[in-house]
Automatic annotation (TrEMBL):
Residues 1-219 form the Glutamine amidotransferase type-2 domain. The lineage of its organism: Bacteria, Bacillati, Bacillota, Clostridia, Eubacteriales. The keyword DNA-binding does not apply. CDD domains: PRTases_typeI. PANTHER family: AMIDOPHOSPHORIBOSYLTRANSFERASE (PTHR11907). This is Amidophosphoribosyltransferase. Keywords: Glutamine amidotransferase, Glycosyltransferase, Iron, Iron-sulfur, Magnesium, Metal-binding, Purine biosynthesis, Transferase.
Length: 473
């Protein structure tokens, strides 16, 4: 995914940018960067690899070198950024979050003639943020350039630009990610996560609409290009990616997760399918609030049969190799034997994507003495890799547990009936659930319905992107 934070104040803003960016560390694991502007000394910028060391520790030593009243920072799950760009539009720093599916085609279309070049990364690919900047620079002003870039990109691009006049913030054209403005006594900030600026003394001031571009200064903000009518904000922000304290489109993440669990339990009780269990538990960490809601509604006691040991490995998707990630996940799971041995347990996870680590978790629970393990997913079966953001991106949809299971059950014919397989009330849907139970060792499995998930989010469902479940834009 990736996250961003920017601030512009009447006094030095370096610490605000540092802490605000650090509060987005849950959104990415590869690169972290900061760019600060001072009217006398110009731009200062630094980028660090954060794959094995947190953002905070990598940038702690840089703070003494930074100074200025405006700056932006990013946590990137893809390319090194922010970048410094010099063009006919001036000198500016830029950071982006999103996906460019047609990067090669854009390079070929616009930049294949003599006189154009890009710095290739070790993979041979072009830095996505550099490509966005190149598209922006094709126009005569930054606003027209941002519009041009977003219109040409197949995927999404949320953009922050820092120049001598302040910060330009542009939400992607369908609003798949949030962009929020906070205001304080000494200036303004722009952020992905709202809680990040609450801790820094800013209050909620404005939330950009889809496609909207605003200029943020220490004195406030001004819309330079209006919002569009259509929005498709990512539902996974509430189920998984978003931090509990954050609000998107007026809906709090933690509150949504409680309600989501309650709706799952409500519907399961209504169908008469709630198993007899000793405890309801959440797969740490993001599964826990869904499980609390489930326990509250079902009347089953909530417990934590195992906890994660996070001081040395705070994020389960590090390091980079799958084998090492699996080993780290295993090392982090610390059982509470008194809550596992001889117990029937129902676990709620935020989602089931590939199922690799979930298999390890179930094996760990049985090895620790569990009598039964029932699993519930707080969202529907993931059927399609995301083509708009970095969540559930795959080389092939067959890496996804649900799609792989369908292929194993029915071959290519099954791929013509994905919608039916996603519906647990159909024979195909029940067949898929049984097959996954056998494969991963669950005593039962259930997925939240799409209707239930949308009910829990609580905003206009036509404004929510559900592509990874339905394949429909």
């Amino acid at each position: 995914m990736g996250g961003f934070f920017g601030a512009i104040t009447k006094q030095d803003c370096v610490l605000d940018v540092f802490f605000g960016t650090d509060y987005h560390s849950h959104l990415g694991t590869k690169r972290g960067g900061m760019a600060v502007y001072d009217r006398k000394d110009g731009f200062q910028r630094q980028i660090h690899n954060i794959e094995n060391t947190p953002f905070r520790t990598k940038f702690d030593k840089d703070l003494a070198e930074f100074h200025g009243c405006s700056g932006i920072g990013c946590i990137s799950d893809t390319d090194p950024q922010p970048l410094l760009v010099r063009s006919h539009l001036g000198l500016y720093a830029i950071t982006t979050v999103g996906i460019i599916n047609n990067a090669d085609a854009l390079v070929e279309r616009y930049f294949s003639d003599h006189g154009h070049q890009f710095m290739a990364m070790s993979s041979g690919k072009v830095n996505a943020t550099e490509l966005v900047a190149a598209l922006i620079n094709q126009k005569d002003d930054l606003i027209s350039g941002i519009r041009h870039a977003q219109d040409e990109i197949d995927g999404s691009a949320t953009i922050l630009i820092l120049d001598a006049d302040g910060i330009l913030a542009a939400r992607d054209k369908l609003g798949r990610l949030p962009v929020l403005i906070g205001q304080g006594e000494n200036g303004c900030c722009v952020s992905f996560e709202s809680f990040a600026y609450h801790k820094l003394g800013y209050h909620d001031a404005y939330e950009l609409g889809p496609r909207e571009i605003v200029r943020v200064t220490a004195g406030g903000w001004k819309t330079l290009s209006p919002a569009g009518e259509q929005m498709k904000i990512c539902a996974f922000l509430w189920t998984y990616y978003g931090y509990p304290n954050s609000n998107y489109e007026g809906m709090n993440v933690e509150v949504m997760r409680y309600r989501n669990g309650e709706i799952m339990a409500r519907d399961e009780v209504h169908r008469g399918q709630l198993p007899k269990v000793d405890y309801v538990a959440g797969v740490p960490d993001s599964g826990v609030p869904h499980a609390i809601g489930f326990a509250n509604r079902s009347g089953k006691p909530f417990a934590r049969p195992f906890v994660k040991y996070t001081p040395t490995w705070p994020r389960s998707f590090m390091p980079t190799s799958q084998e090492a990630r699996n080993q780290v996940a295993k090392m982090k799971q610390i059982p509470v034997p008194e809550l596992i041995e001889g117990k029937k347990l129902l676990f709620v996870d935020d989602s089931i994507v590939r199922g690799t680590q979930l298999r390890e978790t179930v094996e760990f629970l049985y090895e620790s003495g569990a009598e039964e393990v029932h699993m519930r997913s707080a969202c529907p079966p993931v059927m399609y890799g995301c083509k708009y953001l970095n969540f559930s991106r795959s080389n092939s949809d067959m890496e996804l547990l649900a799609r792989r299971t369908i292929q194993e059950l029915e071959g290519d014919e099954g791929q013509q009936h994905i919608e039916e397989y996603a519906d647990a009330s159909t024979e195909r849907g029940r067949c898929m659930l049984r097959a996954i139970c056998e494969k991963l060792g669950f005593d039962s499995l259930g997925y939240q319905s799409l209707d239930g998930l949308l009910e829990a989010i609580g905003i206009d469902r036509d404004k929510i992107c559900t592509y990874c479940w339905t394949g429909k834009e």
